[in-house]
């Protein structure tokens, strides 16, 4: 089996690996989009992480988490009902 993968071009092996990960990606996205209150934060986290941006030498996975947590905190704060003052 190893000899077979060594003989196959690298781009084909990378394509096979990408196809193998489609199931995990789709189930992860479905789980992130399940809760309506967390949907926007999940999308922001995914897009930031998938963008591949890098600031100050720190990769997109970290910035995706930071953006997602910040978006979730802002959305929860905005949706919280305002209590009337006595």
Task: Give descriptors for this structure.
single chain, 86 residues, mainly alpha, 2 domains, 5 helices, elongated
Give structural notes.
This protein starts with a helix and ends in a 7-residue tail after the last helix. The longest helix has 20 residues, at 60-79. The chain is elongated, with a radius of gyration of 19 Å. It is built from five helices and no strands. It folds into two domains: 1-32, no CATH class; 35-86. 71% of the residues lie in helices and 0% in strands. The model has no long low-confidence stretch (mean pLDDT 79). With 86 residues, it is mainly alpha-helical.
Write a brief caption for the model:
The protein has 86 residues and is mainly α. The protein folds into two domains: 1-32, no CATH class; 35-86. It has helices at residues 2-7, 10-20, 22-32, 39-51, 60-79.
Spans of at least 5 consecutive residues with low confidence: none
Tally of DSSP helical segments = 5
Strand coverage percent: under 5%
The pLDDT mean sits at 79
Write the element-wise H/E pattern from the N-terminal end onward.
HHHHH
Rg (C-alpha, Å) = 19 Å
Q: What does the main sheet amount to?
A: none
Topology of helices and strands:
Layout: H1 2-7, H2 10-20, H3 22-32, H4 39-51, H5 60-79
Helix pairs in contact: 4-5
């Amino acid at each position: 089996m190893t000899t077979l993968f060594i003989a196959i071009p690298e781009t084909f092996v990378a394509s096979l690996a990408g196809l193998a990960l489609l199931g995990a990606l789709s189930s992860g996205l479905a789980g992130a989009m399940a809760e309506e209150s967390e949907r926007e934060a999940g999308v922001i986290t995914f897009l930031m992480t998938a963008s591949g941006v890098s600031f100050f030498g720190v990769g997109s996975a970290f910035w995706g988490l930071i953006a997602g947590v910040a978006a979730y905190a802002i959305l929860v704060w905005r949706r919280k009902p305002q209590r009337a003052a006595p």
